[in-house]
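Structure, all two chains, one model.
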Amino acid sequence: MEIPYYPGCTLNTVARDFDLSTRRSLKRLGIELKELSQWNCCGAVFPLTPDNVMGLSAPARVLNRAEKEGDKVTTLCSFCYNVLKRTDYRLKRDREGLEIINDFNEGDYRGKVRVLHILEVLKELVGFKEVKEKVSRPLKGVKVAPYYGCMLLRPAEEVGIDDHESPTIFEDFLASLGCDVVTYPKRIDCCGAHMAMGREDMVSEMSGRILLSAHEGGAEMVVTSCPLCLYNLERSEAPLMKREPGFKAMPVLYFSQLLGLALGEDGDGLFSGKNLYDPRPLLRDKGLL
Amino acid sequence: MARIGVFVCQCGNNIASTVDTQKVAEEMKKIPGVVYTQDYKFMCSAVGQELLKKVVKEHRLDGIVVAACSPHMHEKTFRKACEAAGLNPYRCEIANIREQCSWVHHDKTKKTGTLKSTDLTRMTIERLKKNKPLKTINIPLKKKALVIGGGIAGIQAALDIAESGYEVILVEKEPSIGGHMAQLSETFPTMDCSQCILTPKMVELSMHEKVRLLTYSEVEKVEGYIGNFRVQIRKKAKSVIEDLCTGCGECIEKCPFKADSEFEVMKGHKRKVIYVPFPQAVPNIPVIDREHCPKFLKDKCGICAKVCGPKAIDYSQQDEIITEEVGAIVVATGYDLMPVESFGEYGYGRIKDVVSGLYFERLASASGPTGGEIRRPSDGKVPETVVFIQCVGSRDPKRGVPYCSKICCMYSAKHTMLYKHKVHHGQAYVFYMDIRSGGKRYDEFVRRAIEEEGAVYLRGRVSSVYERDGKVIVEGADTLSGTQVEIEADMVVLATAIVPRKGAKELAQRLGISYDTYGFYNESHPKLRPVETNTAGIFLAGTCQGPMDIPDSVAQGSAAASKVISLFSREDLVREPILAEVDERVCNACWDCYYACPYSAIEQHPLKGRDGSIVRWVARVNEGACQGCGVCVAACRSKAIDLKGYTDEQVYAAINALV
């Protein structure tokens, strides 16, 4: 099965690991991610002005391209997913806005595309049961804390890939890989997001709370699906260690890296060494590398 | 020749400002058959009515037209006046020259208004000429009432009706009457024990000679109309012969099997498989829960039958269908609590020590699972900090229901007090949106909880509840101080939204009464007819209509009862004769009317010859059920049906007068 795939800017640059590991893993599950023939930045943030649709021009252009190449489009980055999904939600309900955007973009988007996050692809198109059957290297004994962040869940009626207050999709997924899943209260809290641009202190505090909560739950590593979350969490570990002497730094990685590992991908191809705290020693200890 | 009198009302200036009433009156005099006309300032005044009576007698009139306001306003007034003067009231007709003429025309020269009024009055006169004198219809009335639901509202309604000397059948779904009130600990604002004030009423009801109590029963089918309902009730098999059972409880004691208790709210609290819901149950007769009893599942056990002295256990008992005829129905089916598992942030269902308000009532109740001690479900510890969260599902249009559940502010305040009375060193916190404590001594009660009993009220919502080291951590906002708060609690109590009873919509459809989008039953008028439904003879009481507290439910129960009593106080039902009538000579029994009638008022009637054989069939109108809507008249192809008081002949006469 081929699915049109929108990588977005980070997946081609800083989040190269995320992109590669997902493509490889899905291939093993029988799904080919077919990159859109043309794409541009999604805009990174969904514009909140209700009376001006011009902010939707960039994501609408992506959706328009996707519509030409299939009936659905998948993306990995939580932010891209959020922006594309909300744009689609709004344009499907705002005929006038859609017309303005189409005029401006010289496009013909009709709202016939379903935007899917890669976790939804794994759940709905592959099925976690199927994933479990394909796992050749169960990640036994790895205590993993899934971190949702905000962008996959909120606003609930527009984007939510699961119950926004009590989601389980991430846990269910990790369980299918054989991990020891750590459920901790702060898994749906905000990491601080683009406050990283100017208020690192705030990010450090917010991400710190999440890390501490995962640590208290007994986690050895945190996985996420968002390059910005990953950045914020990693950068907040050093200050947290200073504040909380009991806290030990732990690797933060993309869930697809664990997926690849479990499916039997070559470990060195999954971890390029970009992680601030390298997960490889830990995985080696567990006999998985 | 007819002898018709015409009165044209000026209605002060309401009509007279745009209609020359005197001229209208003079014009009418020219119509053949009109022997008297007059205009007058206020026809509806006592003087106006006296004038009408006097004229009828003096001029020996056989019909009256009053050109005045809408017949909705004063048709009855003038018809009564006619009746007093010895005229058939249905020989009085109203020409509406106010709402349909003077109020909508602004021509101060009065030309338009006068012209139109003349036309309208002339039409009515021609109509009246074809009018037959009609007689009101008397329908027999079954002076027996059915009350559906044995909660406090139903109990009150049934008791009031029975006390007036009329028979009552009370149908209750559960094995015992009592409803939710039997589950409560103490009641606001007086803090008297709920069961102590309820059980005497339950016993009184069961002992009352006019009351027939059908517990473990449901209403299956309702037919008929006001005064003459036919009701089918399914009496579920209790597997216990009621006449033999002495209520000794031996069977319950010896029964080795258990199932979850519905009465104790929270899963994990067990009752026996043969059980009464609670010790003070009325009737004190156990039932066997066939879904869990091994005797029924795999034909094993049978201990209860062995230990029963009076041999009252009957495993072969079948559901019984009872048919009853009643004159009025009171619906008092009560409420359910909204399932809150979908509100993930509160952790209900996931965290053991997050409980519902109703479960807290059981904890605080002397007859509850802990004997009235406040102990948390997870480890039985006495909680030292309890957080109460209000508006769980209520006032939440996105995820719950948009309405206010009305009683939660009060019972949460009560809960803090109950808790403080039992755990003196404990601390209660309440997260609220607004404190809604309107009612006699209600606000004082909440103030007492805050000022004297030390409950800390935080205005804001809770964002998440989770467990940490045996504590339940509650994170929320305190919007008055503008800060985020985190409370390390031992237990969390959710004030969940009130929703209609499960199956409320299906019952409404069986009864033919209307309900709102949520399933609460609609009253006929929100202010002036609060306990009537739009279906004559069916009344509402209690929370089946919307969230309300015990005093309101009791008041409604009594109000519904008083409506039933006033209905029963008449000899028989008097109805307006504006009904459909079939000309049996013309009817060819095509049954179009039979299928068209929304009230099932058309009956298929055989006409028999002298030897008793059926010659042919005709349609007949049941005068009790007919509402005079006229649908059958329009449906009838052979023009065999007419609506009395609005016959085709009359309508054509009116039209002919205009063209």
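Residues 4-129 of chain B form a domain with the Rossmann fold fold (CATH 3.40.50).
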